[in-house]
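ok new one. same drill as before - structure tokens go in, u give me an amino acid for every spot. 372 of them this time. try not to just spam alanines like last time pls lmao
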């Protein structure tokens, strides 16, 4: 009895942990979390090679963390407690002023960044097409004054300027600088507050810069029919679960007279309208991140043809670009299967637009597909 009194907390916790573990074992796994807006790790298959390399234990740890009993409530409790303690961040997301949430992007993988830049340079040098490079900054680069005092994040503007100089040296390539455009338009709604993407207005401003560089007439946004979706809480909210986060809204625009195929299968439109009602609203744009999307606009009578190699920022950009090209081919290398070289040679593109956020360009491991 004396030992029980001295170690009462231990005697309470051990049975509780055992009980939770038993319940957790028989608890049904969940593949997708609407609460966090992401896919959850499933139980990994056992392979001896994974065991030997240590990969199995890492995957199993991810599985345990993602499938833990009452996970959503624990996340909420952590967010509430850190908010009460006055913390300015949670789970890699910084709480900024004016309800903005920012990515805690403190360090960039320079080795992988310049490896990807060299891959792109090699790809461009082996082609006769005309290329544009657009490197997209994250919101904290434009709204530095909204960051908490003392926060030191990656100097994206300096990196982007240097990357633009590298590509401008290539004979058939022109970089498109949007940093200054965005800084001059920062009083407008150009980035979501709870998500890492730009808004449709931000995408439109980038599209206008593309049009200027390529000497084409941009569609006026006021000539397009606008649709609004309220109640958007994006990836930054999903990670931080900030209890008083301000909801965003999404604007998208009608696109008529177009045919869309995704990986060879015809779909009903440019966007997946069912997704506007889901928690993952941004994925409605361009039907999400697919390997190859082909869009044809028969109201454009010339034979203009452009290839866009991109990350998800381009998904809300394409809704404007379709007003200038007869055919748009959109490739997301994360979902693209092998055989890119054959595809590229079979199609003669007037223009190739490569657009990535700086962070994605520095972290991407799929650009090597351009070689094959």
């Amino acid at each position: 009895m004396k030992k029980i009194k001295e170690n009462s907390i231990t005697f309470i916790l051990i049975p509780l942990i055992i009980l939770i573990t038993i319940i957790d074992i028989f608890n049904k796994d969940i593949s997708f979390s609407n609460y966090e807006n992401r896919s959850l790790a499933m139980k990994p298959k056992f392979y001896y090679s994974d065991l030997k390399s240590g990969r199995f234990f890492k995957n199993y740890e991810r599985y345990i963390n993602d499938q833990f009993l009452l996970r959503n409530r624990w996340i909420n409790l952590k967010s509430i407690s850190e908010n009460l303690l006055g913390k300015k961040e949670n789970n890699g997301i910084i709480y900024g002023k004016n309800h903005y949430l920012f990515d805690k992007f403190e360090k960039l993988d320079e080795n992988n960044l310049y490896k990807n830049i060299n891959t792109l340079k090699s790809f461009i040098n082996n082609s006769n097409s005309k290329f544009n490079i657009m490197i997209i900054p994250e919101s904290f680069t434009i709204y530095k004054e909204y960051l908490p005092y003392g926060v030191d994040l990656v100097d994206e503007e300096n990196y982007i300027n240097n990357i633009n100089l590298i590509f401008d040296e290539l004979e058939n390539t022109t970089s498109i600088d949007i940093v200054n455009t965005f800084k001059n338009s920062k009083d407008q709604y150009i980035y979501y507050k709870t998500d890492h993407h730009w808004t449709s207005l931000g995408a439109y401003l980038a599209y206008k810069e593309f049009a200027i560089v390529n000497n084409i007439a941009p569609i006026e946004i006021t000539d397009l029919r606008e649709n609004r979706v309220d109640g958007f809480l994006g990836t930054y909210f999903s990670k931080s679960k900030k209890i008083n986060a301000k909801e965003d809204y999404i604007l998208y625009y009608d696109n008529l007279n177009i045919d869309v195929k995704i990986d060879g299968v015809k779909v009903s439109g440019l966007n997946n309208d069912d997704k506007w009602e889901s928690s993952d609203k941004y994925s409605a744009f361009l039907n999400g991140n697919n390997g190859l999307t082909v869009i044809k606009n028969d109201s454009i009578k010339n034979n203009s043809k452009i290839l866009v190699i991109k990350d998800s920022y381009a998904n809300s950009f394409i809704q404007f670009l379709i007003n200038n090209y007869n055919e748009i081919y959109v490739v997301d290398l994360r979902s693209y299967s092998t055989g890119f070289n054959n595809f590229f040679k079979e199609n003669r593109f007037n223009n190739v637009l490569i657009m990535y956020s700086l962070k994605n360009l520095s972290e991407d491991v799929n650009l090597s597909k351009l070689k094959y």
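The chain has a mean pLDDT of 88. and btw The CA atoms of residues 79 and 241 lie 6 Å apart.
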